[in-house]
Amino acid sequence: MKYFEANFDGLVGPTHNYAGLSVGNVASLSNAKDVSNPKSAAKQGLQKMKALHDMGLKQGVLAPQERPDMNALRRLGFTGSDANILQQAKQHAPQILRAVYSASSMWTANAATVSPSSDTADKKVHFTPANLTNKFHRSLEPETSGRILQAMFANDEHFAHHRHLPDNDHFGDEGAANHTRFCDDYGQGGIEMFVYGRYAFDHNKPAPVKYPARHTFEACTAVSRLHQLNDSGVVYVQQNPDVIDQGVFHNDVIAVGNQNVLFYHEQAFLNTEEKLTELNRKYAAQNNKEMHFVKVASNQVSVEEAVKTYLFNTQLVDIGNNEMAIIAPMECKESASVSAYLDQLVSQNTPIKKVHFFDVKQSMRNGGGPACLRLRVALSEQELAATNQHVLMSDQLFGTLNNWVDKHYRDELSENDLIDPSLVMESRTALDELTQILNLGSVYDFQR
Ligand SMILES: N=C(N)NCCC[C@H](NC(=O)CCC(=O)O)C(=O)O
Q1: What is the pLDDT confidence band of residue 333, given thresholds at 50, 70 and 90?
Q2: Distance from CA of residue 364 to its chain's centroid?
Q3: Closest ligand 1 atom, CA of 313?
Q4: Model pTM score
Q5: Segment 340-368 mean pLDDT
Q6: Does residue 174 carry a catalytic annotation?
Q7: Where are the active-site residues found (predicted)?
């Protein structure tokens, strides 16, 4: 049977804006309150999806969430009509208003952790939505993420859906942004690398001092239990707290992997030598071959430059003949040191042979590069056939979604627009139509 890695990219929602909500994420804070362009953001995302589809890769779409989250405002004590609630929130709690408007569900690497059927004891694909407890605006996502994933992978024979972990910082879980799977063919059993920033129950262990470590060791082990993974196929690695303090808020800002390749910055992890030896040992035991570790040294690309350009927030995709391409943001091309590094990388003896650059600037300005925008799901032919076919990219879906964006999205969104009640209705009308296009059923609160 054939196996594939499918990428499900987040469709940018109609309220995409720059609100400065993510302490520890340099781009989010430095672009706070800039004017955004939701239409162009959504189209940049669609272009990337279409390009990967055209490269012959399996590409899907993950629907955005309803924003503003009026239920969250009601739960926090604001009452009356939608217009009244927005006015009160603007007057008394503008930070809360900005948070409930965030289109952050676009970064679907944070939607869930996914374990393919070749790794799990019951041979089903397992999904656990990430609770995203560390940031209020993101903690609003997991319930709806779960519903959308269930509508995309709605078949009990092949797919197992778990509830997100308890909503508490002890189990802070940022999903696939801190999870990488290594394998030979996508259908072979893999080694799942879970990366965490701190231990929740042991304060003597290393932890960052300036910025938050969003993801805990305890969350990693819980997801691994839920997904019925075997210890021989799992490695737990701690992020270097110093890089978190330099703005590496997720591991996918400093490392990316695919099949037998780990592309990483030398400062990414703690106990690097020991952990990569364990990873290689477990990989070799399953596959009779070794991993490729592609290490980038600080004197080649500094951590600061990596955070600025998102060199590691790239996608490593299989392009056949045991070769891979890097899907990189335009910022990598624009940086002299990073583009020089990439030029020489593709000539080295590694499977990485090509680089494709994409303009995802609207997302980058909130700290989201190509890798943040996608959730990877390795699927067999049969599992792909059991997936909701309406969410899979095609020439037709690309056209339909571009028209849908043209019809419903604004060209500009600034802070003052957030009290405009017509934006609430615009967003609902757009999403209601989208659930029909993607055949998702009633996944949003306003539809239930
Ligand atoms: N690395 C991965 N996988 N995802 C990137 C997520 C970016 C997101 N930015 C934001 O939520 C900023 C929103 C704002 O400030 O308006 C975050 O910090 O969680």
Answers
A1: very high
A2: 13
A3: 1
A4: 0.98
A5: 97
A6: yes
A7: 174, 250, 372 (nucleophile)
